Structures are given as structure tokens and as C-alpha cells.
């Protein structure tokens, strides 16, 4: 891990921070975690995490600055009033190029998850995909729910595991190619939207121009599959 977290936006109620890939959200063994790094580098600040990203995932995280804000964000997430968009790459061709992936999230072995046909722990993901470059496919993902490993399991289920995500069958690479690209929500009556392109990953080259060329931007305006 070479990159460090970067603060993109500061408000009295919350901060928006870009987490690098390869950094665990909480400390693991001797390795510093994202939250520990934030507390150590901003010792005069209080942070209350309201969601999280997997170790392999880079991108946008909301940190509430006080308990009241954390409670409001918790309600917004529960009511699905925060829109999140992710970008992912796969070296495999998916069973379908766009659509929805739905099912129950079932815990498997050694911290892995799998998708089943039930409605228990229900996960719902919408997606589009396009060819980024020969042998690499780009996915634009909109999770409608927020389950552990949801996007990683979703892409595995359509035979296109995320590049670098070896847990779920992705090819070995320089990083896990999953990035939390965009967040939008309403705060105190004002619409807020944040975007952040990935800062690391050799295979992400040409990402922005590809999104535009394939009419996959802006993400909010896409006709998302039901």
C-alpha cells in the first residue's frame, strides 16, 4: 500500500475521505487501519463511521463528525436515500452485459459470502458494463442494498469476478479493482454530490474517457435496470 487517505471535503457535520485500496477499515494485527490512521493524523477531531469499505476497495467514505450526524446518516442509509456508485474491472466476460443481480447473501467458509435464491439478507445490485480495453471489462455498479461483499459476490455470480479479488476468483493483479466513485444525498435540504476517480491501478488507465465514450456518464442520468 503506497497511497494514504486524503480528505476531499470538510463540513462541521461530516467529512468525505478517499480511502486507498489495500488499507483495512479497522486495524488488523500490526497494520494500521483507515480509522486508526484518521484518528492519529487528526487527533483533535472526532470521527463516527457510518459505512465502510472492504480492504481491497478504494474510494469515498463519509465520516460523521458527531453522534447526531451519525444518527441522521444511519437513517438515510436505512431509507436508501444515499446513492452510491462503484467502478469495477474484470478480466472475464459476464453472462450478461447489464441488468440486475438479486438474491440472499449467505455466509460461506473463511469469511466469504455467496448468493442464493432466498430473500434472507437480500442484496440488490444494478449494473452496466462495457469493454475498457482488450481483455478488460468495466462495470458501473449501483448497489440498492449495502451487504458485506455484495458487489464482489454479485460480479462473481455473473462469471466476472473483480480483477485482483482473489477471494472470489479474480485474477492476480496490482490491486483489487473496485472503487467507490460517487456519493449523493440530501443534507439539511441541500443536494450533495461527490465524485472521485481512482488514484491507483494500472488497469484503470483510460477509465474516464471510456465512461464518456460508452455513454455511461453522468451516472445519475443512466436508465438503470430495474
What does this structure look like?
The protein has one domain (6-221): 2-Layer Sandwich (Pseudouridine synthase). 15% of the residues lie in helices and 35% in strands. The protein has helices at 34-41, 67-78, 150-157, 207-213, and strands at residues 6-10, 14-19, 48-49, 58-64, 83-90, 98-107, 113-116, 122-133, 136-143, 178-187, 190-195. Strands 1, 2, 3, 4, 5, 6, 7, 8, 9, 10 and 11 form an 11-stranded mixed sheet that branches. The protein starts with 5 loop residues before the first strand and ends in a 13-residue tail after the last helix. The relative contact order is 0.17. The model has no long low-confidence stretch (mean pLDDT 95).
What is the gist of this entry?
This protein is of the alpha+beta class.
Class of secondary structure makeup: alpha+beta
- Span between termini: 37 Å
Gyration radius over CA: 17 Å
What sort of overall outline do the alpha carbons produce when their principal axes are compared?
globular
CATH topology, by name, is Pseudouridine synthase
Layout of SSEs?
Blueprint: E1 6-10, E2 14-19, H1 34-41, E3 48-49, E4 58-64, H2 67-78, E5 83-90, E6 98-107, E7 113-116, E8 122-133, E9 136-143, H3 150-157, E10 178-187, E11 190-195, H4 207-213
Parallel strand pairs: 4-10
Antiparallel strand pairs: 1-2, 2-4, 3-4, 5-9, 5-10, 6-7, 6-8, 8-9, 10-11
Amino acid at each position: 500500500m503506497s497511497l494514504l487517505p486524503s480528505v476531499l471535503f470538510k463540513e462541521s457535520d461530516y467529512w468525505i475521505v478517499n480511502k486507498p485500496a489495500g488499507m483495512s477499515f479497522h486495524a488488523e494485527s500490526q497494520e494500521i487501519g483507515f480509522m486508526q490512521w484518521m484518528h492519529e493524523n487528526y487527533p483533535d477531531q472526532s470521527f463516527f463511521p457510518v459505512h465502510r469499505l472492504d480492504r481491497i476497495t478504494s474510494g469515498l467514505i463519509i465520516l460523521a463528525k458527531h453522534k447526531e450526524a451519525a444518527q441522521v446518516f444511519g437513517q438515510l442509509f436505512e431509507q436508501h436515500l444515499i446513492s452510491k456508485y462503484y467502478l469495477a474491472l474484470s478480466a472475464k466476460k459476464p453472462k450478461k452485459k447489464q441488468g440486475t443481480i438479486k438474491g440472499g447473501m449467505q455466509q460461506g467458509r473463511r469469511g466469504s459470502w455467496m448468493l442464493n435464491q432466498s430473500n434472507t439478507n437480500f442484496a440488490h445490485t444494478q449494473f452496466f458494463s462495457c469493454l475498457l480495453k482488450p481483455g478488460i471489462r468495466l462495470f458501473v455498479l449501483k448497489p440498492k442494498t449495502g451487504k458485506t461483499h455484495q458487489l464482489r459476490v454479485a460480479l462473481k455470480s455473473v462469471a466476472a469476478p473483480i480483477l485482483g479479488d482473489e477471494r472470489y476468483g479474480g485474477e492476480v493483479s496490482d490491486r483489487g479493482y473496485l472503487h467507490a466513485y460517487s456519493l449523493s444525498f440530501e443534507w439539511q435540504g441541500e443536494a450533495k454530490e461527490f465524485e472521485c476517480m481512482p488514484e491507483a491501478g494500472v488497469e484503470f488507465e483510460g477509465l474516464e474517457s471510456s465512461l464518456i465514450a460508452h455513454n455511461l456518464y453522468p451516472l445519475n442520468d443512466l436508465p438503470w435496470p430495474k
